[in-house]
Design a protein that fits this description.
Length: 136
């Protein structure tokens, strides 16, 4: 009976330890699943951030490429206008325009001089008339 009692106690202890072991195993399994879930969430977040960064870089690259394309077009346009073959004609055109502007300026100066001379003459005539009218 003493040995039966010890056997029962050992069996009870064995069951208790098995339950404790199962509880620990379940807890470890739960923590592993939780860790796995957290890792998956972190991975999703990192993937999202990577995609967001790639999109930003793509937008920046598109802007730079568009600007580069515009500059290349401007360069082509300038190159077609200012080719070495056209340079002498462009210089002649600029010189002709300068001559025309100088002639126009000279005409304006002559007109201004004539107006000033006319004004001066008119003032002199008025002064003579004033003195003639005021004379006793």
């Amino acid at each position: 009976s003493c040995s039966w009692r010890k056997l029962n106690e050992k069996e009870e202890l064995n069951r208790s330890l098995q339950l404790k072991c199962e509880d620990l195993h379940l807890e470890a399994q739960r923590q592993l699943e939780q860790n796995h879930h957290l890792k998956e969430e972190a991975l999703k977040q990192y993937c999202f951030q990577i995609q967001e960064t790639k999109l930003k870089h793509r937008k920046i690259r598109m802007k730079v490429e568009n600007r580069l394309h515009q500059l290349m077009e401007q360069h082509k346009n300038l190159f077609t206008i200012f080719t070495p073959q056209r340079l002498p004609a462009e210089i002649r055109s600029a010189e002709y325009t300068t001559e025309q502007l100088l002639k126009a300026e000279q005409q304006k100066l002559e007109q201004l001089t004539n107006l000033l001379d006319g004004l001066s003459l008119t003032q002199n005539e008025e002064m003579h008339m004033d003195t003639f009218v005021k004379a006793p």
